[in-house]
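Sat 14:20. Reprocessing the chain from the morning session after the first attempt stalled halfway. Input below, unchanged.
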Amino acid sequence: MEAYDSALDTGLLILRVLLGLTLAAHGYNKFFGGGRIPGTAGWFESIGMKPGMLHARIAASAEIAAGLGLAVGLLTPIPAAGFVALMLVAAWTVHRDNGFFIVKEGWEYNLVLAGAAVAVGATGAGKYSLDHLLFSGSALYDYLYGWWGLAIALVLGLVGGIGQLAIFYRPPAKQST
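Finished this time. Tokens:
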């Protein structure tokens, strides 16, 4: 079983790093790419996430923090919850009206990122992670995978995303033709 365990831990490492660095790069781009934070803030305002500057900073910071947290496997269910919250808000505010498929700007990609992060929260970060290095053998470690990990990632993420939408999302009025 040692070969299986090693392959499983390597697979989890690859998945965590791929997901995490993808989301972190997205946040980095909000800070330093294109229109930077002011451009992102204007876009947030235009889709109904007000105040735009606050949400631009929060989104960029959360994407970097959740992405890097998942990539290194630190308190894994918490960054996984960040993925869920971020992707729920993105799917609802930007992609919902476009249907499922990403080729039509749908919410497919958001679902895959959030679902994969929840799966990592449930399986745990594996041996090649800061969770294992810092917490294995401690009582906290039992909350970083399994049913606890799944529940923390899913429930905390849904509460965060739904809460943000309920408090801040004010969609622009539809223009009549």
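The mean pLDDT is 94.
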